[in-house]
Design brief:
Blueprint (H helix, E strand, L loop, with lengths): L1 H10 L1 H13 L8 H13 L5 E4 L3 E7 L7 E7 L26 H17 L7 E7 L8 H7 L10 E12 L3 E3 L2 E4 L1 E10 L3 E2 L9 H11 L2 H6 L6 E9 L6 E2 L2 E10 L2 H21 L3 E10 L2 E3 L1 H15 L4 E3 L9 H5 L3 E10 L24 H13 L3
Parallel strand pairs: 3-4, 3-5, 5-16, 6-15
Antiparallel strand pairs: 1-2, 2-4, 6-16, 7-14, 8-12, 8-13, 9-11, 10-12
Helix pairs in contact: 1-11, 2-4, 4-11, 6-8, 9-11
Length: 395
């Protein structure tokens, strides 16, 4: 079976690349993946499968049933949305949707899972059980398409015993696969603050309550949330990426808008962190004569890889790829809405290497120059099919 899957994955690689390039050329933002969903569903129908459309509006679900389909069910997931980024790559498949780009590899994930569906469907007489394929919207935007898909029953009827997800890794060389057991990725919360004071002429600071100055003190003070309020062994990040005062050289505004992110891997500390952020920001602003409104939008939970499932998947990957091509991953404080699945059922989220330094394919995700070595699409679809079929054998 292994060699048969490898041969199919290799033979379908050119088609997988063509699908990826089509998706890359026509990206759609989170929860707006209408054309993408139609494209996915039509491809599945062309294979002879019967997809369910409109799950969480733009999600698509399909079952590939082998012999004795009720014996065991395993799920595979891909995300379909793109990011609000202007692509800087000069390639034939460059985005044709201004300001929208597949800068996180979801085009690879979707094309890979479509090709996995093709492989599994061709082999349906050779395995027992059912593989549920989940093409979900909105991974990049709160509340996360995974949470909505779960609410609409994607993990029921039939309920999978486990779920696997594959994500590109631009820091991992193409041809290699990465796994990590247990805690892997962080919870992600969005922080929005409005620091208010009294604006006026920059040459008359004694008549003002300067919200720009207050903001600088608030941001510096909030660093102690990580350095002094959390346990040193608990990975956590508090970062601010947007500060908007909207004054000019000699005009102090009345208020400043600040946006940031808070990430951790412990739910108890997560709630304590929210409290610390609010108290410190409001306390500093109040002490300096201003005020601070704090809004914390709860995002994705932390992502935990089920140890036994991940161990089995890693061993299966070794059989497929060879031990030298399967690596261990470090903790990563990025967020992923696959975490919602991991809170409900046994889950394994692993990484597909896409880096090629010799070809200059080295940019990170969420950047205008992100791209992948497409030879990864000779590996990804077959590996997913192999992992799913190995999981179907578990008793």
């Amino acid at each position: 079976m292994l060699e048969k899957i490898k041969a199919l994955s290799k033979s379908y690689a050119a088609d997988a690349v063509a699908i990826r390039r089509h998706l890359h050329t026509h990206p759609e933002l989170s929860f707006q993946e209408y054309n993408t969903a139609r494209f996915v569903a039509q491809n599945l129908r062309n294979m002879g499968l019967a997809p369910q459309e409109g799950v969480a509006d733009t999600g698509v679900v399909v079952l590939v049933e082998g012999r004795n389909p009720d014996s065991r069910v395993v799920a595979l997931r891909a995300d379909m949305d793109a990011l609000p980024i202007v692509e800087a790559n000069d390639v034939a498949y460059k985005s044709q949707n201004p300001g929208v780009m597949h800068a996180c590899g979801h085009d690879v994930h979707t094309s890979s899972l479509l090709t996995t569906a093709r492989i599994l469907h061709q082999l349906k007489e050779d395995f027992e059980g059912t593989v549920k394929l989940i093409f979900q919207p909105g991974e990049e935007k709160i509340p996360g398409g995974a949470s909505l898909m779960i609410k609409e029953g994607v993990l029921q009827n039939p309920a999978p015993a486990s779920i696997l997800g594959q994500h590109v890794a631009p820091n991992v060389p193409v041809g290699k696969i990465g796994f990590r057991e247990g805690m892997y990725m962080a919870s992600t919360d969005e922080i929005y603050m409005t620091i208010k004071g009294k604006g006026g002429h920059g040459a008359m600071p004694d008549t003002l309550i300067d919200p720009v100055l207050i903001t600088s003190h608030v941001i510096v003070a909030l660093q102690q949330v990580i350095s002094r309020h959390r346990h040193p062994a608990a990975p956590s990040v508090l970062s601010f990426g947007k500060v908007m005062a909207n004054g000019v050289t000699n005009v102090i505004p009345n208020e400043v808008q600040v946006e940031g992110t808070f990430r951790c891997m412990d739910e108890e500390w997560r709630e304590k962190g929210w409290s610390s952020i609010t108290k410190i920001a409001q306390g500093v602003a109040d002490a300096m004569g201003g005020s601070c409104e704090v809004e914390i939008r709860k995002g994705y939970p932390f992502l935990k890889n089920h140890p036994e499932l991940t161990r089995r998947a890693k061993n299966a990957a070794v059989a497929y790829m060879g031990a030298s091509n399967v690596i261990d991953l470090d903790l990563w404080l990025a967020g992923e809405d696959f975490a919602f699945y991991s809170q409900v059922t046994d889950a394994c989220f692993y990484r597909l290497g896409t880096r090629n330094e010799a070809r200059g394919i080295v940019s990170g995700v969420h950047t205008p120059t992100f791209d992948v070595d497409e030879s990864a699409l000779e590996i990804g679809p077959g590996l997913m099919a192999w992992l799913a079929l190995e999981e179907l054998k578990v008793k």
